[in-house]
Amino acid sequence: MKSYRLSFGTIGLINDNIAEVIVDEGVEIDEIMVDEYHDFLLSTLEVPFYLLINKKNSYTYTFGAQQVITQLKEIDSMAVVTTTEAGIMSTKTLISMNYNDTSLNVKMFHEREEALAWLKKAKTCA
C-alpha cells in the first residue's frame, strides 16, 4: 500500500478509489486541513471514493471543519474503525452534524478488516 504524508496524518492508498486515513495523535483538524484532505482525494483517487477512517489515534475537529469534512460529493462510503467510547461518540456527532447529505453511506466498525470488506462490498454494489 502506497502512503502519503499530509500535514495532519497519513493517507494510504488501498486501490484506485479506496484510501485509509489515519490522523496523527493530538491533532486538531481545521478547515485548512480539510481543504488539504479534499484536494488530495480529488487529485489522487478515482471517483467515487471509498474511505476507511482509522481512528486509532485521538484527535479533534474545529467546528468549521466538522461542518465541511464530509461534504465532498465524490465520497460514496466511509467505514470508520474505532475501539474507544470517545471515538464512537465523536463519530456519531460528526455524522449527525452532516446527515443532511443522505447520499453518504457511513458505518462504524471495531475491526479494520471488517470495515475494509464492507467498503469493498459497497464499491461492487455502486
Protein architecture, described:
It is a single chain. The strands form two sheets. The protein has a six-stranded mixed beta sheet, with helices on both faces. The chain has four helices and eight strands; from the N terminus they run ββββαββαβαβα. The two termini are 23 Å apart. The model has no long low-confidence stretch (mean pLDDT 90). By secondary structure, it is an alpha/beta fold. The protein has helices at 31-44, 63-68, 85-97, 112-125, and strands at residues 2-5, 9-13, 18-23, 28-29, 49-54, 60-61, 75-81, 105-109. A hairpin with a 4-residue loop joins strand 2 and strand 3 (18-23). It is globular and about 35 Å long. The relative contact order is 0.17. The longest helix has 14 residues, at 31-44. Helix content is 37%, strand content 29%.
Furnish the topology, listing elements before pairings.
Elements: E1 2-5, E2 9-13, E3 18-23, E4 28-29, H1 31-44, E5 49-54, E6 60-61, H2 63-68, E7 75-81, H3 85-97, E8 105-109, H4 112-125
Parallel strand pairs: 3-5, 4-6, 5-7, 7-8
Antiparallel strand pairs: 1-2, 2-3
